[in-house]
Amino acid sequence: MTSEPFDRVEHRASPSMERGRVGLRTLILIRWIAVAGQAATLLTVRFGLGLPLPLDISLAIVGASALINVANSFHRPSAARLDDRDATLYLAFDAIQLGALLFLTGGLQNPFSLLMLAPVTVGATILTRRSVVALSVLTVAVITVLAGWHLPLPWPAGQPEFPDLYVVGLWAALALSTVFIAAYTWSVTEEGRRMSDAFAATQLSLAREQRISAVGALAAAAAHELGSPLGTIVVIAKELARDLPPDSPFAEDAALLLSESGRCRTILAGLALRPEADGGTPYTRLPITVLVEAAGAPHQQAAITVEYRAHSPSGSDTQPPPVARSPEIMHGLGNIIQNAIQFARRRVQVTTGWDERLVTVEVADDGPGFSAHVLSRLGEPYLSGRDEEAEHMGLGIFIAETLLERTGATLDFVNGRSGGATVRIEWPRAALERAANPADTRLA
């Protein structure tokens, strides 16, 4: 189940996101910290511990990193944002630079070889999946080179002999850590981005529904305010048309004025009634059955029959509870009904029930139903379709569930025994009546 305009939107980074995934200032700061740490470590080992190191070339490698940082600071504004390609190259240089330092200082036998994981960890939080894979492959390649080729680490008591099995174990540990950290960090970060995008889309959908409701209320208020002066104009036009002799040159103008005044009254009357026809303004209380039909009305299709039913589960003859028109309820129910119509073959049945405690709405269609894969993940953002092979990522169900849950509803998605899908929406009656007040149902 999905909903336009989000049901056929594949989840990919937007153009604006691709142009600026991370601030240059952030990467420059991280690199300055790395440069300071590398320089301090080299100087401490050489002069503090007195161990012989190829200090000149090592400091030259650190200096090259610092010079590139200075160049980036001057050639680009500090507030600049790097696209995916530039950020990947930036972090790839860091991995190669750190690998060069480790080559000069013992390779994987150097305790600081664990820092090879740092560029991949940073990249997994800001880069696309393809770039993270490329950076991970580069890091593993550098680790592999360091495992077989490197200058010896100047141990105080002479160079120890490390068994080949130990070196292979170090290589495997770093390589597997690279892959695991990259995959896990990227997955968690991507999930956070998806949820953030989904909630932003939900806010936009609710704001749009609220604007529509506000326009309806404004139209009704304008029609009411203009009704009195227009009534006066109609009375005067009638008197003019009655008092003017038939042969008067103004008789035709008076008749036209009367006709157009009547036309204006008809238009204003339509504006005043239209909000009630589509569910009322946000402050209009109406039966829940009328609200449900109003939510589904904009999504009718000629080829699909939508049947609305109402009953009291307790079997009593009580009237449907009156509730206030809530943009959350209208938009959420509209999405659910629209999706049922989209997947139905011929018929959709919408059943509204109520008793003293609960109000329920069931939307059932005769479509293909949900696959087991989709059914277990319904309500997640950017999930679309009822087929396990669905490639499109939508937001319809996520938006509907988020908005309806804000009004106190719970949603249940099931497949019918004879096929089709059923969505059951249930409110505690008291919570529905409270949540229907727009002042209480704004998204946090």
Helices and strands in order, then pairings?
Elements: H1 15-19, E1 22-23, H2 24-48, H3 55-75, E2 81-82, H4 84-104, H5 117-126, H6 129-148, H7 164-243, H8 251-277, E3 285-287, H9 288-296, E4 305-311, E5 322-324, H10 327-343, E6 347-354, E7 358-365, H11 372-375, H12 396-406, E8 410-415, E9 421-428, H13 429-435
Parallel strand pairs: 4-6
Antiparallel strand pairs: 1-2, 3-5, 6-7, 7-9, 8-9
Structural account:
The relative contact order is 0.10. The longest helix has 80 residues, at 164-243. This protein is of the alpha+beta class and 444 residues long. The two termini are 26 Å apart. The protein contains 13 helices and 9 strands. Helix 5 (117-126) packs parallel to helix 7 and helix 7 packs across helix 10. The chain has helices at residues 15-19, 24-48, 55-75, 84-104, 117-126, 129-148, 164-243, 251-277, 288-296, 327-343, 372-375, 396-406, 429-435, and strands at 22-23, 81-82, 285-287, 305-311, 322-324, 347-354, 358-365, 410-415, 421-428. The chain has 3 domains: 15-203, no CATH class; 206-277; 285-440, Heat Shock Protein 90 (2-Layer Sandwich).
